[in-house]
Amino acid sequence: MMKFKAFVYVTLKKGYSDPEGDTTADALKGLGYPVKTVRASKAYEVVFEAEGKEKAEVLIDEMCRRLLTNPIKDDYRHELSEL
Asked: What pTM does this model have?
């Protein structure tokens, strides 16, 4: 077995409201920054074992689809590296 680390980045799909991003944008504007928009996102660091890189890619994609994201409203991408 090989050890892998994945960083998973989850963002809302276009068209979904982002109250956290809107609030942050308003706060930054209130502090005088020339901000147009802010989109909030989540990041996960997942360390796991797999039999190889191809299997690791399949596993992290499955983790994203089954638990880490809501496929209706979220987009995601991941970066995978061997430890």
From this structure: 0.85
